[in-house]
Structures are given as structure tokens and as C-alpha cells.
């Protein structure tokens, strides 16, 4: 009978210690969650301060330009300027001066190696 009581007491103490550990972990998680929430709110508030500034990318470009010298191999938009092919996706190497891609007007001149070789009005 004493043996059963001792086993019961040991199990009870183990459960009590386990519950204390769980309560401690829960309190740590609540503090961590609160700190994470505050940090996220601070970041969002800081980002919100710049909402009134101008965006670098317009919603709808007013016109497009053909920009040569900046496309990757196989990623050109149409035929080569030198007539070596007449289809998109056939550029043989990166940054060839004969291969081009459409970019919003005014973008090509901002890219190193880019040269405007034509323009196209945007669709309405």
C-alpha cells in the first residue's frame, strides 16, 4: 500500500512540474508574440509614412519603347534589329545590341547599356 502511495506521489509531482514548465513556456510565448506584434506594427507605421511619395513605376505606361542591349539570351521580345531572326525568344546571348525588349517609356535610358531603338503607344 505504501508502495502505491509513493508511485502516486511521484506521478503527481512529475505532473505538477510538467504543468509549471508549460505555464512558463506559455508566458514566454505571450511576451514574444507581443514583442513581435509591436515590431510589426512599428515597421508598418514607418512604411506608411512614405505613402504620399511618388511611385517609381507608373500604373499604366503612356508609351512603350524598344530597348536594345539589355535582354537576356532567349528573352528578347521580337525580331533582331539586324534581321538575323524575326521572332521573340531567339536571342543567342545576353545584352546583344541587336536584341531588344519593350519597357515603359523613359526606362531604357536609366539602364546601363540600354539604347532606345523605337517606340510604341500604349493600348487604351
Describe this structure in words.
- It is a single chain.
- With 124 residues, the chain is an alpha+beta fold.
- The chain is built from one helix and three strands.
- The protein has one helix at residues 2-48, and strands spanning 63-68, 100-104, 115-121.
- It has a three-stranded antiparallel β-sheet with strand order 2-1-3, with no helix packed on it.
- The N and C termini lie far apart (91 Å).
Question: What would you say about this model in short?
Answer:
With 124 residues, the protein is an alpha+beta fold. 38% of the residues lie in helices and 15% in strands. A three-stranded antiparallel sheet has the order 2-1-3, with no helix packed on it.
Number of helices: 1
Number of strands: 3
Instruction: Return Rg in Å.
Output: 32 Å
Uncertain regions spanning at least 5 consecutive residues? none
Distance between the termini: 91 Å
Feature tags:
alpha+beta, 124 residues, elongated, 3 strands, 1 helix, 3-stranded antiparallel β-sheet, 15% strand
Layout of strands and helices, then pairs:
Layout: H1 2-48, E1 63-68, E2 100-104, E3 115-121
Antiparallel strand pairs: 1-2, 1-3
Amino acid at each position: 500500500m505504501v508502495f502505491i502511495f509513493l508511485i502516486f506521489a511521484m506521478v503527481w509531482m512529475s505532473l505538477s512540474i510538467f504543468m509549471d514548465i508549460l505555464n512558463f513556456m506559455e508566458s514566454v510565448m505571450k511576451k514574444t508574440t507581443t514583442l513581435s506584434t509591436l515590431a510589426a506594427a512599428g515597421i508598418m507605421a514607418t512604411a506608411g509614412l512614405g505613402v504620399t511619395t511618388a511611385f517609381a513605376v507608373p500604373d499604366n505606361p503612356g508609351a512603350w519603347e524598344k530597348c536594345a542591349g539589355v535582354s537576356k539570351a532567349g528573352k528578347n521580345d521580337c525580331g533582331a534589329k539586324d534581321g538575323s531572326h524575326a521572332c521573340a525568344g531567339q536571342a543567342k546571348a545576353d545584352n546583344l545590341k541587336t536584341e531588344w525588349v519593350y519597357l515603359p517609356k523613359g526606362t531604357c535610358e536609366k539602364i546601363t547599356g540600354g539604347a532606345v531603338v523605337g517606340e510604341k503607344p500604349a493600348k487604351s
